[in-house]
Task: structure prediction
Amino acid sequence: MPAARKPSPLPAHPASLANVVDTVDTSFLETLMGYNARRASLAIVEVFMVRMAPYGLRIVDFSVLSLVGRNPGITSRQLCGTLGVLPPNLVGIVGQLEKRQLLARQPHPHDGRATGLHLTPQGQTLVAHAEATAAELELEATARLTAAERRTLMRLLQKIYRPEPA
Amino acid sequence: MPAARKPSPLPAHPASLANVVDTVDTSFLETLMGYNARRASLAIVEVFMVRMAPYGLRIVDFSVLSLVGRNPGITSRQLCGTLGVLPPNLVGIVGQLEKRQLLARQPHPHDGRATGLHLTPQGQTLVAHAEATAAELELEATARLTAAERRTLMRLLQKIYRPEPA
DNA sequence: TATTGTTATACTCTATAACTATA
DNA sequence: TATAGTTATAGAGTATAACAATA
Result:
């Protein structure tokens, strides 16, 4: 059966009657973009968590390491702004990764308040493998999509969350 | 600038150098479907929460009321299965909605262990307004999409999270 | 005066164990 | 024995307030 476009009509049964539900009708919720986006997001996130577990990385850990790898010297504030994590909550995340010797802090060249973050050699190795796994996992989690559909989906999703392009 | 398809190459700078990041490069994360789906989902959810606040409904409350409205007599277990909420966590949700007299419990006709849930007249009125608001909000949150793009996006998202159709 | 990084803490959400009543 | 609903509780994630050091 293809995706229902229209929700079922509201049931005519009075609320006082004792009804039994055979199969749950979710057709209305399925007309909502938020419902579909959330369900799809959770489905991918689930696969992501499983595949990152062997590296001992949660999604936020992966995101931090990947961003530090591609932005050597990035500050905690910049990470917070990019990932939507509040500063007090990033402290522990960075602290753990530092304790695992995956990243290191270095004094910021121009700003004595800030600290620049860099990957250690171990961090570089780990993030390279983790990013390769993430790229593989992409295809796995969207296995029912063609390459063209994948590109289309990516573009439409970005149209939702990205600010109006200049 | 259009959506970047390819991530930037890894920086050549050694990790021991003190670098400064001007603008954060997120191009790799943006190649990941999970990242895009999560960002888009959060963007919509944010609007959803704001627009549901006047009704005193969180997203899960809205989902429960909408499902009960379209599935009179639905049980807690069925709600849990549909929404991915664990039974102990649904107790408080249903309890609050019952206390607000938006829904009522009735004995299940065939199963003495179960309880059928029904909307009260107040619940029916509230959910009708909330669903109308949700439908409006859909267009608001996806304002940069055409109607055709919205249908395409919906279909592709469902292709990700829905089990293989029979 | 504003900002970076931090501590302490509170609140919400999610998860687990165990109980009761019924099937 | 298994299931529906419930209680109590633990854990993760997310939020606010306040502080020291630096701009």
User: Anything to note?
Assistant: Residues 75-77, 87-88, 90-91, 108, 111-115 of chain B lie near DNA strand D (CB under 10 Å from a C1').
